[in-house]
Amino acid sequence: MKRNKRLLIIAVPVAVILFVFVVYQYIYVGVMSDIASIREQQDAKMATLTKYITLIAEKPELEKQLAALKEQAKVQDVKLISGEPISLASANLQGLVKGVVSGRSGTISSERIGKPEDLEKPPAATTAAATPAAKAPAVKKADKPVAGLKLQVLGVSIDSVLPDTSALSDILYSLETRTPYIVVKELDVRVRNFREPRDLMVRIDATGLYEGK
């Protein structure tokens, strides 16, 4: 009897300890793990919500930046020769140069379209061979290419007869100050008749930029 009481006295605390262990291991730890998981989800949702709130607050500024970028793209497009495919763009460049020459009483004798080339570096400095009476004005420098654009150089050559040096000066000024940008790459000027040095035989090699597709 006494032995049973001793066993009972020992068994009860052991049972209590085991019960507490089971409760702690399978109930308390599990509950705490679920609470930690819920807190992590809440923190993640709060971080996402904060991010969205920040984006919403920045939306007006982002819209302004987007509008500015679109405006810059429009300005840049105006500087480039338009047309698709590239053969049409070359024809458009040829038409622009011909229109300027014809508009200054020039008679076009021949015209050629050059082979397009990829733009890998800024165009070389313009060279000009002209008589002292018909010195060409300084050629403007092409804008620095915009990063990310695949630019190609289109070229045309126009042979024409001009009535005087004033017409040549007007043509060069018109080409170099217009948009889309046209750069006079080479200029060859000769007097048609040295006995009557008035009419000029002029060859203009002009280039423009095209955004490759």
Mean pLDDT: 77
Main sheet record: 6 strands, mixed
Report the CATH architecture of the largest domain. 2-Layer Sandwich
Q: What top-tier CATH class of the largest domain fits best?
A: Alpha Beta
Sequence stretches where pLDDT stays below 50 over 5 or more residues = 125-148
In CATH terms, the superfamily of the largest domain is Ribosomal protein S6/Translation elongation factor EF1B
Strand-residue fraction?
15-25%
Number of strands: 6
Specify the overall morphology: rod-shaped
Total number of distinct structural domains: 2
* Derived structural class: alpha+beta
In sequence order, what are the helices and strands, one letter per element? HHEEEEHEE
Using only CA atoms, what is the Rg?
40 Å
* Tally of contiguous helical segments: 3
Spatial separation of the terminal alpha carbons: 101 Å
- The helical percent reads 40-55%
CATH fold description of the largest domain: Alpha-Beta Plaits
Tag the structure with descriptive keywords.
single chain; 213 residues; alpha+beta; Alpha-Beta Plaits; 2 domains; 3 helices; 6 strands
